[in-house]
Description:
By secondary structure, the protein is α+β, with helices and mostly antiparallel strands.
Amino acid sequence: MFEEHQYSIDSIVFDVMQTFKLHSIVRHTRFEKQEGYSVTEILALLIMFPLMMLSSVNSFFRSEFHEITTMKKDALYRLKNNERVPWRTMLYGIAKRFQKIVNPDQIVAAHSAFILDDTTDRRVGWHLENVSYVFDHVIGKTMLGFKHLVLGFFDGTTFIPLDFSIHAEQRLRGRKRRE
């Protein structure tokens, strides 16, 4: 698609930043980094992962796309793991901007609804912080991982996430096992 339509990842990242006004959203949260790449640059790159069919920072740096930036993986991990980042405020700002883009007239369909979605995030490995056994109702089994709970608004066409939380269920006793 990129070659066929003469797009480059750089131009797409720039377009995403401009369209969603990411700099304004980040500035509104009043969160600032002391040095290095800006929050806006890192956030724009993270937002692009699904469009590049990537699921993680690791998969990004193992792909051919890693050449689009001089950022190292530590810059992305430090932002993702920083507990002071107001992720909910940023998500809400992006959701509001997305709604303005796709529905400028603010028309609410008769079959719109708020939806709560719980998704199991399976984890494998040793010494995972706060990992627990969670029950996945879709497959009917308990597995090692977390539950992601997302509140979203379905406007009749699109699902827009508004809030989220990550949950653990049964605490592991003693040493964490690899599953």
